[in-house]
Amino acid sequence: MVRFDCRDSGAAARFDELTATAVRQIAENEPGTLIYATSAVDEEPLARVFYEVYRDRAAFETHENAEHVRRFHELKDPLLTATRVEFLTPGPGLQR
């Protein structure tokens, strides 16, 4: 899970454009990326959260090293004031 905080509304709009492009490229090129869900945060218009699930560690490494992902990072970083990455270990849950 990753949280991004954008600098201002203009940066948030550009971040959303970059995200839409990146998601398309991930869907087309990364079969090991099982979930790549992006969300805006209610009542925090400058915050975005990504929830990502990979088939395995190798799929995550493939994702991180993909040219389209490296380009996304390069273009989005100047738009942000903070990034918070958390690696999760699954616990009890429900999936339908």
Automatic annotation (TrEMBL):
Transmembrane segments: none annotated. It comes from the Bacteria. Gene3D superfamilies: 3.30.70.100. GO terms for molecular function: monooxygenase activity. Keywords: Monooxygenase, Oxidoreductase. PROSITE patterns: ABM (PS51725). Residues 1-87 form the ABM domain. Pfam families: ABM. This is Antibiotic biosynthesis monooxygenase.
